[in-house]
Amino acid sequence: xxxxxxxxxxxxxxxxxxxxxxxxxxxxxxxxxxxxxxxxxxxxxxxxxxxxxxxxxxxxxxxxxxxxxxxxxxxxxxxxxxxxxxxxxxxxxxxxxxxxxxxxxxxxxxxxxxxxxxxxxxxxxxxxxxxxxxxxxxxxxxxxxxxxxxxxxxxxxxxxxxxxxxxxxxxxxxxxxxxxxxxxxxxxxxxxxxxxxxxxxxxxxxxxxxxxxxxxxxxxxxxxxxxxxxxxxxxxxxxxxxxxxxxxxxxxxxxxxxxxxxxxxxxxxxxxxxxxxxxxxxxxxxxxxxxxxxxxxxxxxxxxxxxx
Length: 308
Known about the structure:
Layout: E1 5-13, E2 19-28, E3 33-37, H1 44-51, E4 59-64, E5 67-68, H2 73-78, E6 80-83, H3 95-105, H4 112-121, H5 137-149, E7 155-159, H6 167-182, E8 186-190, H7 194-200, E9 203-208, E10 211-217, H8 218-225, E11 228-234, E12 250-253, E13 258-263, H9 272-281, E14 286-293, H10 296-306
Helix pairs in contact: 3-5
């Protein structure tokens, strides 16, 4: 089955000479949740805005569900739902009217049953007759998602969807995104919350200075780049590492009461057995040990440092 989104050699250079995107190539499979990570100014929003027809590219091609976004603009745009970062709504309009109106913008017939389903899924049905000005910031964020889903898109962009919302609402949105994926909707997510990508995404893409530097299955990325840490709780604190242990890649922590050893869990030899023997020979004993797997945040920070 062909990908729902294909991007080839995409470029964007502004009149000032600023290169926002350079030779971006990316394919998104149908029905996946794809998380696009990157620091501020990396080009995430520019990329989304070009795909959605808000910003004009300087070069390259993009097809959405087989439709070229330049030649078949209407068909391509009808396939896409966009939840922007900014809370831009008509303050005096009611929830149900603003969502229904957005559906009409795509030339679709009224479908009260679909609008009701969307509002119920987002816990907005009880607020359907409330004016937008009466809603909390979190509820307004839900309305933006409802608007994006009003015309039944097959590709949904969530640009920092949980920025500034509480933990409960964030978890509600995670559940909704999973339901959408189960219904066949492809979701592309940009986020500053690394745990959000780690929790939800099937694949991870990292963008830096307008270039895609990595695209990988989340599980494979964690396997390839993840590290483990072995933390040993010492029976007696150390002021410094014994000379025989200096070259073992150890770090002293917790005021000398811990030894931390970082290793590649996929390596043929982790060095743990040798380390424990060295500790015994150095006359050190420990009361407890713990292991910790690197998180996606650790990996992301490491990638940014490598590419700096």
